Amino acid sequence: MPPPSPRIKGWCPGAWQPMASGDGLVVRVRPPLGRLSAAQALLLADLATRYGSGTLELSNRANVQLRGVDPLQHGAVLQALAAAQLLDADARQEQLRAIVIDPLHQPSDGVLASAQALQSALQQAPAEVLQGLPAKFGWLVAGPQHALLATVPADVRLLCLPAEHGAPTPHRWWVQPEGVDQALAAPTLEHAIACVLLLAGWSAAQARQRRTQGLHPGRMASQLAAYHSEHQRLPDWPLPPGVHWHTPPVPHLGGDAEPAPGWTAATGYLVAAPLGRVSAAALARLAQALPHTAGAHGTPPELRITPWRMLCIEGVESPRADEWARQAGLDQAAHWITAPTDPRLRISACTGAPGCDQALAPTQALALA
What we know:
Blueprint: E1 8-9, E2 11-12, E3 17-18, E4 25-29, E5 35-36, H1 38-51, E6 55-58, E7 64-69, H2 74-83, H3 91-95, E8 99-101, H4 111-124, H5 127-130, E9 139-142, E10 156-162, E11 171-177, E12 183-186, H6 189-212, H7 220-231, E13 244-246, E14 262-264, E15 268-272, E16 277-279, H8 280-289, E17 303-305, E18 310-314, H9 321-327, H10 363-368
Parallel strand pairs: 8-9, 9-10
Antiparallel strand pairs: 1-4, 2-3, 4-7, 5-17, 6-7, 6-16, 10-11, 11-12, 12-13, 14-15, 15-18, 17-18
């Protein structure tokens, strides 16, 4: 039996045998550059209602997942996603868009431009260079607030930071491979992108080699650990001119610091979903309210998908903001978390029964209780 689409979760890549979740298929949607328009959000809510369980999930990789999709309707779901520009032409292109962008990025911090440049470079890279990248290999692009993304999985982090005083450009870039406590300091974005491609290409080559040896391909951190164990050093990567290892080490990214729900300066409104799950009806009501307010630039705001089980309603600026939030249904505590003291922010839970065949109990209700 051929392997299922990489967009369908709930299958074992080692055995190449599809396994539907207990409530049907789980279809992952990776919004371009981490943003959804009102129309796209409405579509996802409609698909979840018509073809799924009526529930969507926000993942820690800033993806949206449709749960309980009927296998017989999977093709219809993919066609609808493609028409809304939420589906890639092939699995390779989707993997190369596994980029988490700091959802609190601002126009002046260079994060969005860095992410756009990285995405373009990955898509234009020769296929043979990145062929065989480890499954779930991903990138993260962040700015000065990168510590808020400390727990987000990423094999390579691209940090766009303010330049030092007197520098000719407003930004500087660090590229950090997972598993290394230092970063490559790059003088320009072009140099930084070259470093990212170099690291990703090395990881892909390591994965290909390990597969031929009958070994698990691993990911960046485990590959580097294995290399260091054998050679007692990092690989001799041919770094671009002007790039060097940054010392002292990059500030430690550990910890559990995450932003709290509420209004954020110059970004918008953060609202959390209990246990990372959003009902289709609640998302539809929010999406329907978006065209009825003005964003920072006078245009309807979009939704930024975050890796914190939250949505960021970008650029909402209105003297009637609280009234608009009520119209959007954000005051419905069963569907949204808007208070930073809400105890549900401290709770995580797996899908549980009946959504997961391996679960022994309905964990969602237990967690909320």
